[in-house]
Amino acid sequence: MIARIHMTSRSVAMPYLPPQKRDHEQVTRWVRGVLLKRCRVWVAVREAEITGYAALDGDMLEHLYLRPDVRRQGIGTLLLNEIRRHSPDGVSLHVFQQNTDARAFYERHGFTVLDTSDGDRNMESLPDMTLRWTPACAR
């Protein structure tokens, strides 16, 4: 289910991304073989169905994706709050510059821009930004 959420969310929320090169089976293998082994992963569940997930690698929020039909219902905030609760020194993340919805979401939750990139550090080759949230007690 995480693979399906990952793929669907990216295609719906970020239509400017290049076409996906990996199929569902390949993304499922990545979830099992890489994501779940390398990251701490939280899932949001409603009525026995996974509606979203967040993955933290050290202090880097690598992924926060929701099913498109549950966006703007507080689920992303719940996942983000759980990530922050487990990150006493703060959290960083990368976001595509074109992803204005995600940028606004993170800004509302206290993230600030650390730097920008022309896309040389992501496989999509799209301009991105590094955002950081630092708890008040760590500032």
From TrEMBL:
Keywords: Acyltransferase, Transferase. InterPro entries: Acyl_CoA_acyltransferase, GNAT_dom. Residues 1-132 form the N-acetyltransferase domain. It comes from the Bacteria. Coiled coil: none annotated. The keyword DNA repair does not apply. One of its GO terms (molecular function) is acyltransferase activity, transferring groups other than amino-acyl groups. Its EC number is 2.3.1.-. This is Putative N-acetyltransferase YjaB. The lineage of its organism: Bacteria, Bacillati, Actinomycetota, Actinomycetes, Kitasatosporales.
